[in-house]
Known about the structure:
With about 325 residues, the protein is an alpha/beta fold. Helix content is about 45%, strand content about 20%.
Amino acid sequence: MHRVQQVERKHEKYERLLAVAKGLAPLPTAVVHPCDESSLTGAVNASEMGLIAPILVGPAARIKAVADKHKLDIASFQIVDTPHSHASAEAGVRLAREGQVECLMKGSLHTDELMGAVVAREGGLRTARRISHCFVMDVPTYPEALIVSDAAVNIAPTLEEKVDIVQNAIDLAAALGAREVRVAILSAMETVNPKVPSTIEAAALCKMADRGQITGAILDGPLALDNAINLQAAEIKHIKSPVAGRANVLIVPDLEAGNMLAKSLSFLADADAAGIVLGARVPIILTSRADSVTTRLASCAVAALVARARRETPARTVA
């Protein structure tokens, strides 16, 4: 009994997301190249929970062989037959462009291969917004879901690109139902130092928010990680801010910092990390073979809530 209670506490933020998402109609989703047990099982589980309505895109014979081997019922799913993973990525993107699906879900192909089709200038899913990645993290010791961006797409973003990264993360928090979005722009310190470029960019982003160039949230930065998420640390440093110690969105300086932060939370703080790519015409669920069932379902729930928000405020596309 004690173990069950711990699991429930660990996943309570994700459970809230799942509860809201299950109240929506299943999200039409192209599951791109689900040719292994984990990716196909994830699609089946999400379908059984009513989160997505999958269209399986990949080599039909391989998909059916995986389903038969692992006793997965895919009889009701439409399959778009493709010869290989590259063609699967292109076909999934085409379904999104044609409006047949509102979401893409990564299967057993490389992320670069899928994203290459997404960002292609001819036939891709680009919008006027920079594409970026967010982790929605359920950290057991933190009182609310924590969004970390960008840990998977933009390697060393410029200030201009960070504007879109921040706005994507803010829009995600709003889509997930955050009553107040508090964004911490992270650096190694909480003071502006000309020798540390990330502190200057953090200050610029905050001023851009003051001028209405970034909307929908309260921004503060630069902030070190401790005084972004711990009130006592912020008080010790005499930082007076509605964000410090209470951030629910963390913007990292670059991909390396984001990746290390997310993995540190996962492996040292027992957190789960649901991944989503934003800024394209449709949300894109990025899953890993190491993801738990709960994390996969949470990623689908996040995508469903993002898709609902996008229907209400469609993104402007580019040619």
